[in-house]
Every structure is written in C-alpha cells, then in structure tokens.
Amino acid sequence: MNTAETGTIAAILRKPVLLKQDLVAILAATDPADIERIRAAAESTLLEHCGPTVRLRGLIEFSNLCVSDCLYCGIRKNNREVERYTLSDEDIVESARWCATTGYGSVVLQSGERRDRRFIDSLVRNIHAIKDATRSEKLPDGVGITLCVGELARADYERLYQAGAHRYLLRMETSSRELFAALHPPAQSYDSRLACLHMLKDIGFQIGTGVMIGIPGQTIEQLADDLLFFRDLDIDMIGMGPYIPHAQAAMPPDAPLLDVATRMDLAFKMIAGARLLLRNVNIAATTALQALDPVGREKGLRFGANVIMPQVTPLHVRQMYTLYDGKPCLGDTASQCASCLEQRIHSVGRRILHDGWGDSAHYARRHAMNVPAAMQPPAIGPAQPAIPSHGARRVIPLQLKP
Ligand code: SF4
Hints:
Blueprint: H1 9-12, H2 20-28, H3 32-50, E1 53-63, H4 89-102, E2 106-111, H5 117-134, E3 144-148, H6 154-163, E4 167-169, H7 177-183, H8 190-203, E5 206-209, E6 212-213, H9 220-233, E7 237-242, H10 260-278, E8 282-285, H11 287-292, H12 296-302, E9 307-308, H13 315-318, H14 334-347, E10 351-353, H15 361-366
Helix pairs in contact: 2-9, 2-10, 3-10, 4-5, 5-6, 6-8, 9-10
Bound molecules: iron/sulfur cluster (SF4).
C-alpha cells in the first residue's frame, strides 16, 4: 500500500478487513470521486460474490393490525386514524399464486405484530396453502416464503418454520440501545428483539435485520456500529432505508431531521459499507429509497443491493399500510409494478432471477454441510474472520481497484 494513501478512501478499499474507523470514513465521505470509488468497489464485490441477478420477493402486506407502538410508525397501535384491515386467506394465497406465475420465486408475508393464537394459526394455514398453490415444475417446493411479522414466542417461530417459511426479517432499526429506547415505548425492549433474532437463527431460519438511516440524533459512529452488529450477528439478509417521518408518528416534534439528500447519501453508503464488509449477504434496495428519490432503488442496486420487493398487496388496502409518509407505488397494480421493475433493473445493467428462491449465499455458506453442492455459492470467504461456531469458513482478502 502506498503510504501517502494510508487513510484515504482508495487505501481503505484495498484493505482485506474493514475496521470501524474504515467504515466511519466510508460513511463520512463527501468527495464525489470518493463516493464513486465506494460505489464501484461495492458493485464489484457484489458481482464477485453474488452474481448479477436481482432477486425478487413479492411483498404481501396482509394485515396492519399491530399490538406494538414503535414511535416512528404510521400503523402503531395508538394511531387511531388508521383504518385497520386483514386480508382474507383467499386474497393472500391468490397474491402468492400470482407471484409464482409471474416468475417471482419468493414472497414476503408482512404484517404488524400480533401474538394471539388465532393469528399464528392463520399464518400457519396460509403458509401451507401458499406452498400447495405454488408448487410447479419450476418451483417444486413452491415459492420461498419470508416472514416479517415481528417478535413472537419461540414455539410460534418453530411452528412457522415447520410449516414451510424459511426466511425471517426482524429489523432492529438501530443497534444503539440509547437510540432504540428513544424510538420505542418502555414495554418494547432491545434485549427482547435481539433474543428473537438469536432464536430465529437457532431454529434454522435465514435471518434478516436492518436499520433506519438518519434517525434524529443518530451519529455516523452509530451507523458504523450497525454494520458491525450485522457482522457479529452473522446475518444473512439486510433491509435498510432512510428514516422518513410519518405525520401520525409519535416522535418528539422538535427532533432535528437531516435533509433528504444527506439521508439518501448515507443510505447508499450504508448499502455499500454492508456489501464491502459482509460480501455475500442479500441486501434489499428498499421501497423507502424510492420514496425519497424516484430512482432510489436503482441507485441502491448500483451501490451493492441485490434484492427488490415489488408490491403485490391488493390495491384496495395498500394505502392503509404506511409505516412512513410518501410510500411509492400506492396506485400501481402488481402487473404495473412488475413491468416497471423489469425496466428499472435492466436500466442498471442487471437482470432478474426468475423462478428461483434467490437465497442468501451467506446462508448457504453457513449451512454448507447441509446444502447440495449444486446450490452452494463459490468458495469465497467473507471479509471478517469467521465467528467461532462457523469456523470452517476461509478468509480471502479483497482485491479491489480504486
Ligand atoms: S414498526 Fe412494525 S411493530 Fe412497530 S408499530 Fe409499526 S407495524 Fe407495529
């Protein structure tokens, strides 16, 4: 390494292992040439470790009923202005069937949090029904099912896994205990959410988590810690987006908010930082990116994301599921979303993975002993030393040109 370059972005991008100070430097970069170096390195890492395909998960927001009260959220239980809904079993299964016939190999079933027996029973029933309805020659095990339904008891997670769901998204929103406490009422605890993530992993789910970027009061150091938190938890999937306020949220009204451009810049650099640090995880270009920039998701792909969750929620309820203001695609049918996405993905030189689950290569590697050889990713190690329980992974330094 050229000594004169030590500490510069170009030098950082050549390091085999990124440390916290490197991530801080990446997130703090403002020079357009540096940001392009970061983007190009992240894209190159993505292509090397995950390939060029974009994996789709049809997003079915099947209920906005929620027993929790996250202060930033538009559908928190204490927002009395929201009209509540739960889709019928027929609507849920039909939406999943549409995904399968359109070539989406996976769906996400997302809702507010509920822990009652009736909710879990209906979810188990729908997972079975979706699997039955979507099996085909192309998808012999039906569509892949990701759940995003919040904190539950271990026995409930086990029932959902046994029913056929194999991925679970549970966002921490921040790895900082202080910020977490500022975003949630005292009844919702950091430790409880973290324990759920460990439980899900222990059961066998591919686990995903994520954070909001640009939360009032958040620091760049805390965002760098978020990336290290993903690494230490050995997660398989990440979903991150800019913090966007909701008019009926309960956040303190005087909380200072970063401008849109700054939050978006940070969001793209977080995607790039996650890709450079973790290499073979799946990273979503979230809808929130498009809420603040019409081409935000395409930019997310170019900064290292490889998953998009097109809207499949039936139109008549879609506007009732708004966690933040300005959510895009509220009036587009699932078919319109599908053709729009195809064009957007092609516009950045990538192509869609049709009729495949599109699982995280990181997960396949974690479970290499149980995965058929044909399904295993290339033998390339992660950026960081392996966590002891998965010590078989080997580490190969990154070779990136600025
Ligand atoms: S973020 Fe999720 S758990 Fe929290 S209030 Fe909103 S829907 Fe409920």
